[in-house]
Design goal:
Blueprint: H1 13-29, E1 36-41, H2 50-68, E2 73-78, E3 81-86, H3 91-112, E4 121-126, H4 133-140, H5 158-163, H6 165-180, E5 185-193, E6 199-210, E7 214-216, H7 218-228, H8 231-251, E8 260-264, H9 267-275, H10 278-286, E9 293-298, H11 299-305, H12 310-319, E10 322-328, H13 335-340, E11 345-348, H14 360-375, E12 379-382, H15 388-397, E13 401-402, H16 413-423
Parallel strand pairs: 6-8, 8-9, 9-10, 10-11, 11-12, 12-13
Antiparallel strand pairs: 1-3, 1-4, 2-3, 5-6, 5-13, 6-7
Helix pairs in contact: 2-3, 8-9, 8-10
Length: about 425
């Protein structure tokens, strides 16, 4: 169905409110990730009547239903603005879904000749499980009393505040100072061996506590670091701090010899770390066995830069440092690259985890993933495991490793140290 013959029906905001309340309740009850709300601002439509604009919106909604299925809910919250509720969604999955939404709208423009004036804008707002649906929407910048008139909001979100010129410049200055002063913190999320129940590694996550704004999510400050040219220094700082912590755990015998520290990086940061000899220097200075370190690239950046970064990947392999591919399965076809390049492990994105306990199709799907990565001689970590039943079914299906809130949320170093001491002794 093309946009020209799409119906004009749409889900209004009132139908989304109980869905938000239910998603909030589930997150609280199951100690799962808070729901996320994607606010989608469609590009303006030139030369179309109001009725034609509604048909375009209906066509967009139809495409987005496929993109966010099975659990996503979509509502029109203003003229040219949609809200997509995705329950139980961590920051990285929300970012992956936002990219998928953007691509869907771009594909509609290219395949159906929809006269959009530019790209869509997708803003991510993670909801507070303790807030009501009305309060959550208000904090996200959706004006409930303005929906009928398609007038939009009076409540600016923090992201909107940051996008205004002066505060964004001030935030950039603060980030530059924090990076060069070494005031970027780290959190560690355990990776658990499903067959043994032991913590076999951790993923390292950067954290920035702004003196007046509080915790700034990585989805906001990492892109800003790239914009202002401090991403390389940020990557070096995170790696140095993480390796120093790894040395402390090793010296205190809190970890075994096969423990792996996984550090998120970008293609640019990886080139700087390897090309400038920073990685080799840090390994030497901290006395780290390269086999205890892995650098993670997202599937998106891995595929986009794979050809130009072959030499970097080869050098990394020569050092004995692992290369892990993060967010695997979020829409990019990298199987061909995985056959040729020295990746050691893929991290299966949480969007691929369905109802493992109740749906034989989902179980066959997971087995197929395991067969594929096994055929490529790769390890696999399943991300986003949030329930005991998911962990149990993954183990039964033969999965070796997993991480997620079922095991632990990301923890500061001291708490992670205590967890290592208690967990692996039980």
């Amino acid at each position: 169905m093309s946009w020209t013959d799409s119906g004009t029906s749409k889900m209004d905001l009132s139908r989304l409110l109980p869905e938000i309340d239910e998603a909030q309740a589930v997150a609280t009850r199951e100690s799962a990730s808070a729901p996320s709300l994607l606010l989608v601002d469609l590009p303006s439509l030139s030369g179309l009547s109001l009725n034609s604009s509604y048909r375009v919106t209906a066509a967009v909604i139809a495409r987005l239903h496929d993109a966010v299925a099975p659990s996503g809910n979509i509502a029109v919250v203003g003229e040219g603005r949609l809200a997509v509720l995705v329950p139980g969604t961590g920051p990285r999955r929300a970012a992956a879904l936002a990219r998928r939404v953007e691509r869907c709208i771009e594909d509609l423009h290219n395949s159906e000749n929809v006269p959009f004036s530019g790209p869509a804008s997708v803003r991510i707002h993670q909801l507070d499980p303790g807030a009501s649906a009305q309060d959550a929407l208000a904090l996200a910048g959706v004006a409930l009393d303005a929906v009928a008139e398609h007038a939009l909001p009076v409540w600016p979100t923090r992201a909107e505040i940051f996008d205004s010129p002066r505060p964004r410049v001030a935030l950039a200055d603060d980030l530059d100072e924090a990076v060069h002063a070494g005031r970027i913190g780290l959190a560690y999320q355990p990776i658990v061996g499903l067959q043994t129940g032991r913590i076999i590694g951790v993923e390292v996550l950067a954290r920035w506590q702004h003196p007046s704004l509080g915790d700034i999510p990585p989805l906001e400050f990492v892109p800003l670091a790239h914009e202002i040219g401090v991403a390389g220094e940020l990557g070096r700082l995170v790696l140095e701090s993480a390796l120093t912590q790894l040395t402390g755990w090793r010296n205190s015998r809190a970890i075994g010899s096969d423990f792996v520290l996984s550090v998120n990086t970008s293609a640019d940061q990886l080139r700087a770390l390897v090309g400038r000899g920073q990685l080799q220097g840090l390994l030497s200075a901290t006395g780290t066995d390269p086999q205890n370190l892995a650098l993670e690239l997202t599937e998106e950046s891995f595929v986009a830069g794979a050809e130009q970064d072959v030499d970097v990947f080869t050098q990394l392999h020569g050092l004995g440092v692992g290369l892990h591919i993060d967010d695997f399965g979020t829409g990019y076809s990298s199987i061909g690259y995985l056959r040729r390049l020295p990746a050691a492990l893929v991290k299966i994105d949480r969007t691929l985890l369905g109802d493992l306990a109740g749906d034989p199709r989902e179980q066959r799907f997971i087995r197929a993933i395991l067969d594929m990565v096994g055929a490529l001689d790769l390890g696999a970590v399943f991300e986003g495991v949030e329930t005991r039943s998911q962990a149990r079914e993954l183990s039964r299906l033969g999965a070796a490793m997993a991480q997620g809130y079922h095991f632990s949320r990301p923890l500061p170093a001291a708490t992670m140290t205590a967890l290592l001491g208690n967990w692996n002794q039980t």
